[in-house]
């Protein structure tokens, strides 16, 4: 009987049902644990035989050589176990991946059946008609909203150009009124006429005549 047959509990007939992926994975994990413990045991035995060989190296060579032989056998077994563990680990990972893929495909098939069942009573023509009705109702609702939000009876009958011209006239009138209030002569008060008489100005003509006579007299004396 092969190793894998022992692991998977073989021995059944050809018509016997094989183990499930979960059962095989569990068996492989148990085998990995067993071999790992065997590794730890062999590593301890190798260390013990090495210490015996060192201890009897000079005192008892026969005992030292026997210890080294046992050490070599343990190392050979340890190497074999390392290879077996690698093989089992590879097989376990392959089974886990296969099991995962099986579950994924199973769930995808279940989802496909559910989708088919959901679409079973759907008619694509009815869906198109329904979407067309929805689009028409949305357009109608938009038109109603636009009609409701449009102002009614608030300035629609008036000409905007006429209103602007009237506004310009009002602004010009207001401007003219402000200018009149600032610089109009009718609003500026005039000073009162003085009630007392102004002082008389001295006669300048007499002073000029006296100056002329003095000038002529000086000219005669100089001759």
What would you call the shape?
elongated
Amino- and carboxy-terminal Cα gap? 182 Å
Report the biggest beta sheet as strand number plus sense, adding barrel if it closes. none
Low-confidence stretches: none
Order of helices and strands: HHHHHH
Overview in brief:
By secondary structure, this protein is mainly α. The chain is built from six helices and no strands.
Overview of this protein structure:
By secondary structure, the chain is mainly α. Helix content is 75%, strand content 0%. Helix 2 packs antiparallel against helix 3. The longest helix is centred in the middle third of the chain and has 59 residues.
Notable characteristics:
223 residues, mainly alpha, 0% strand, elongated
Write the layout of secondary structure elements.
Elements: H1 3-7, H2 21-55, H3 61-119, H4 124-149, H5 160-183, H6 204-222
Helix pairs in contact: 2-3
């Amino acid at each position: 009987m092969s190793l894998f047959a022992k692991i998977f509990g073989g021995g059944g007939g050809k018509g016997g049902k094989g183990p499930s992926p979960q059962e095989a994975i569990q068996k492989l994990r148990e085998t990995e644990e067993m071999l790992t413990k065997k590794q730890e045991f062999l590593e301890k035995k190798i260390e013990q035989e090495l210490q015996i060989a060192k201890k009897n190296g000079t005192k008892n060579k026969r005992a030292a050589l026997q210890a080294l032989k046992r050490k070599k056998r343990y190392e050979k077994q340890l190497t074999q176990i390392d290879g077996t563990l690698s093989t089992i680990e590879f097989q376990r990972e392959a089974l886990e991946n296969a099991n995962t893929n099986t579950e994924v495909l199973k769930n995808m098939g279940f989802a496909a059946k559910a989708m088919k069942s959901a679409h079973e009573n759907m008619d694509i023509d009815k869906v198109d008609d329904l979407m067309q009705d929805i689009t028409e109702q949305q357009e109608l609702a938009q038109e109603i909203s636009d009609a409701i939000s449009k102002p009614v009876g608030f300035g629609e009958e008036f000409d905007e150009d006429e209103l602007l011209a009237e506004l310009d006239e009002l602004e010009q009138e207001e401007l003219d009124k402000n200018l009149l209030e600032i610089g109009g002569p009718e609003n500026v008060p005039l000073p009162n006429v003085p009630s007392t008489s102004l002082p008389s100005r001295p006669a300048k003509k007499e002073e000029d005549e006296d100056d002329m006579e003095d000038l002529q007299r000086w000219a005669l004396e100089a001759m």
